[in-house]
Amino acid sequence: MLKSLRFIFISVFAGVVAAAIILSLGSDDDKQVTLVTNTAAPSGPVVQGPYSYADAVGQASTSVVNIYATKIRQQRISPLFDDPFFRNFFGDAFRGLGEQGRTRKENSLGSGVIVDPRGYIVTNNHVVADADEIKVVLSDGTDLEAEVVGTDPESDVAVLRVDNGKLPAITLGLSENLRVGDVVLAIGNPFGVGQTVTMGIVSATGRNQLGITSFENFIQTDAAINPGNSGGALIDARGNLVGINTAIFSKSGGSQGVGFAIPVDMVHGIMEQLVEHGEVSRGWLGMAGQDVTRALAESFGLENVDGVLISTVYRDGPAHKADILPGDVVTTINGNRIETAADIINLVASLPPGEKVSVTGWREGEPFERVVKLGRRPTTNER
After folding, report:
1. Does 126 qualify as catalytic in the annotation?
2. In 47-177, which ranges are E strands?
3. 11 an active-site residue?
């Protein structure tokens, strides 16, 4: 009996000691593994993306064309014919021959998008600038001669027209609804290999101050854009046009995942003016400024860095007539907050000449408001 009790006591004691050892080991934070599982229900609707974008591409691709622009240049044979020493022996029989020379053709390649069934095509200005001949190749291989309806170098937009009956026009989307992370596809003719589709996402919107054009509000995407894609379509996952591919940021000349497209909302307004008037007429305030930095704010006694410091007011311009002075700080135009000098340019340029706008800001620490009747922004050739 005693032996049985002794055995039970020893067994229980051994079990208690073993449990204590195990608990002491388990309390070591370095050896403890904790699994975190999210069992909560999704806070919003789950959006299922398509497994294929073939339908979107099929809808848009017939509206994307290849553009071949040719520039004819005079190539001098040799300046020797106009040399005085040469003419002493041969007289003036060969005079001017060096300047006449031979004609040489320079070809450039790009893409375009049919935006109207009557044959209007949108592309980049740099694709067709100074071209003597422009040929458009439709998706079915049809070759057509194109005429320039109008160009806008400051936004790098050009409108062409071809005459071939009713053409398949692309459906225009709304670029203002684009969000970072949205899927987009670029359609064009890179390197002349033929129509090609690449896919990516919207990396950013509202990109500016890149030095590409005077008016910049670019969509940034990592969809591969290469030489020859310029002027081509950037579409959303439903096949709607959201931008015109324009430029890339690259150290090698090829795509490195940083491409830029002009938003279709901006293109649409420019296209309408080019078709109706052959040029784009933009509003102009007649002043220039610089972004307010912390150092500028301190030197001018400003409490914050909001707004743009006006540095130049052009004599007899709209701002001058409305009593806006150098040293004023502009913070809003028509209620729109102004943070950079580019904001003023883009906002005012989107308005027609003759429209009146409300300009508010600060002058010597006191708030001010002026109503300015916009003038017409001078074109590049007029400056």
Report:
1. yes
2. 64-75, 102-116, 120-123, 133-137, 143-145, 147-152, 157-161
3. no
